[in-house]
Amino acid sequence: MSNDYLSGLFSLDGTTALVTGGATGIGRAIAEALARAGASVVLVARREAELDKAVAELRGLGCRAARVSADLADRDTLKRAADEAAAVFGEPDILVNNAAVNLRPPLGELGEDVWDATMAVNLDAPFLLGQRFGPGMAERGFGRILHISSQQAFRAFVSSGAYGVSKAGLTALARSQAEAWSPHGVTCNTLVPGFVLTELNRRLQEDPERIAQLAAATTIGRNGLPEDFAGAAVFLASRAAGYITGQTLFVDGGMAAH
Ligand SMILES: NC(=O)c1ccc[n+]([C@@H]2O[C@H](COP(=O)([O-])OP(=O)(O)OC[C@H]3O[C@@H](n4cnc5c(N)ncnc54)[C@H](OP(=O)(O)O)[C@@H]3O)[C@@H](O)[C@H]2O)c1
């Protein structure tokens, strides 16, 4: 098979990408995958040390990478961060809305503060970044918006609380964005992880029995790793996926099919 053929389908050379929460976990793996496929990548998250480490690692791999430290829960900060990120390599062609918090009180004990904090990062920020970058992508005739959702958008377990609601909103947001911008070459899709061993669920990982149960809930028989998202992200960001939009792709080891 010719490399030219594969490059024509999947290369991200010459594109720019913005990955929220791109310094750790799934976002870090997606950022690396996009960058190694040719995109210039800007990571946006709060923690400076993690951002610096990720950027240094990506540059060490020969990738073009930069970072913006910002709290996406704050709307003014988000708007400033979006401008700052776009100033590095140009307006992004690829937007990955991956940053999220999972504050786990059961719904009965969940206060307005947790609801607001969850929605601000998990749903409002993806909406606001879409409003900021989607129209420009449409005007340029090419764009890729990718949201990272959760099983809890589709079924309740381990205290879905506000988190599951915010993630369910992302599925509908991708469809609304697809309706608005796909006629102009912008695809908008959602990836749904299963249970992935990252910082986000560090507390759950302290219970080996629970971890084994979650692995058994997949058809493949293991929990997810951040690198499991590399291929799906590059594919959906690529020209090859130009006719796929408004869709939800489960990257979950078969958990949802089980
Ligand atoms: N791990 C799983 O099992 C699993 C399952 C389903 C879905 N997901 C989804 O996968 C995505 C990535 O999560 P992960 O598992 O890779 O965990 P993670 O490493 O904790 O990633 C979350 C990222 O979001 C960033 N973030 C959180 N709040 C932010 C804010 N206010 N402003 C800017 N950035 C913020 C964090 O960076 P800072 O703290 O530095 O800001 C962090 O890099 C999330 O959308 C999550 O809901 C994960």
From TrEMBL:
Entry-linked Gene3D superfamilies: NAD(P)-binding Rossmann-like Domain
Highest taxon of source: Bacteria
SMART domains xrefs: PKS_KR
InterPro entries found in the cross-reference section: KR_dom, NAD(P)-bd_dom_sf, Sc_DH/Rdtase_CS, SDR_fam
Domain Ketoreductase: 15-184
The keyword Oxidoreductase appears for this protein: yes
SUPFAM superfamilies on file: NAD(P)-binding Rossmann-fold domains
UniProt keyword list: Oxidoreductase
Protein family per UniProt: Belongs to the short-chain dehydrogenases/reductases (SDR) family.
PANTHER family, sorted: 5-KETO-D-GLUCONATE 5-REDUCTASE, ALCOHOL DEHYDROGENASE, PUTATIVE (AFU_ORTHOLOGUE AFUA_3G03445)-RELATED
Protein name: SDR family oxidoreductase
Protein source organism: Actinomadura parmotrematis
